[in-house]
């Protein structure tokens, strides 16, 4: 069944302020874009203003998975079973093993010389089960669905991240002519199928550079930049209806090679087709540095 839908996505408002000043988000705690609108002693902790944009989100099931690839669209869907059959990643060891599994996947998928999965995160929507044991360390790895359409990295931030994650020996070997480095994400549901807060991705070929707004994220001990996204009628948005754990979403966050799709704008959205009793979303995502020969 094909499910093209009209849905509301959260975009960055096109303010005059952003023509002379970067938007910023001060994040005294947490990880996600979940502090928008916060203030302290009357001083705003951010200048990000999001607005709702009504868009048609086209179902990849009706269009065909083969029409979308990392190279061309900035995203893709592949059939891939995780070796963790319980889909329970609350323990640190389970997350580490999933990171190793992801590295193995990218080595094969992109014929990589080097892969480092440097981040594994869980997301959950809704309230915690009051009967669930409290594990503060584990919960530190869990975020709500990301708020606001965004790209994880910018063209100025990605090279810094690459340098930070390579050893001095690896820099000598790989940061040289003949090598290409990419930062790529995977996203997988952890329930039988997703209806609540699914993932929307945009075909990179339909985004103009002017749609991307460089934004500062400022933490107590570090800062980095990401892109927030302004809405345009030219953009083409997609989702995979009732996505299952064996259907893995791949997303490009940075590619050092010009000419290819070099990013993927994405974010969660409220699914108008979801029943009121839909199982709250649970998902796992990874971020990886991949080095290949050009």
Automatic annotation (TrEMBL):
Which NCBIfam families does this chain map to?
CmcJ_NvfI_EfuI
| Protein name, UniProt field | Methyltransferase
Tell me which species this is from: Immersiella caudata
Q: InterPro entries attached here?
A: AsaB-like
The UniProt GO MF terms for this protein read: oxidoreductase activity
Coiled coil feature spans: none
Question: Which protein family is it in?
Answer: Belongs to the asaB hydroxylase/desaturase family.
């Amino acid at each position: 069944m094909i499910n093209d839908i009209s849905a509301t996505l959260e975009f960055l408002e096109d303010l005059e302020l952003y023509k002379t000043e970067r938007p910023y988000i001060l994040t005294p705690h947490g990880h996600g874009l979940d502090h928008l609108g916060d203030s302290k002693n009357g001083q705003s902790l951010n200048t990000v203003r999001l607005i709702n944009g009504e868009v048609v989100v086209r179902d990849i099931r009706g269009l065909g998975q083969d029409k979308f690839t990392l190279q061309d669209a900035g995203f893709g869907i592949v059939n891939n079973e995780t070796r963790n059959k319980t889909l329970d990643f609350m323990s640190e060891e389970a997350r580490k093993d999933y990171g190793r599994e992801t590295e193995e996947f990218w080595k094969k998928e992109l014929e990589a010389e080097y892969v480092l999965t440097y981040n594994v995160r869980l997301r959950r929507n809704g309230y915690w089960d009051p009967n669930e044991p409290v594990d503060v360390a584990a919960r530190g790895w869990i975020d709500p669905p990301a708020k606001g359409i965004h790209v994880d990295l910018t063209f100025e931030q990605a090279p810094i991240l690459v340098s930070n994650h390579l050893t001095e020996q690896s820099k000598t070997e790989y940061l040289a002519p003949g090598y290409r480095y990419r930062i790529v994400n995977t996203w997988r549901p952890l329930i039988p199928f997703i209806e609540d807060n699914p993932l929307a991705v945009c075909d990179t070929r339909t985004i103009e550079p002017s749609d991307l707004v460089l934004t500062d994220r400022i933490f107590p001990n570090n800062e980095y930049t990401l892109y927030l996204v302004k809405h345009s009628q030219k953009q083409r948005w997609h989702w995979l209806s009732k996505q299952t754990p064996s259907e893995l979403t791949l997303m490009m966050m940075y590619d050092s090679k010009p000419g290819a799709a070099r990013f993927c704008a994405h974010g969660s959205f409220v699914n108008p087709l979801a029943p009121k009793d839909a199982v709250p979303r649970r998902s796992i995502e990874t971020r990886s540095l991949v080095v290949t020969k050009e």
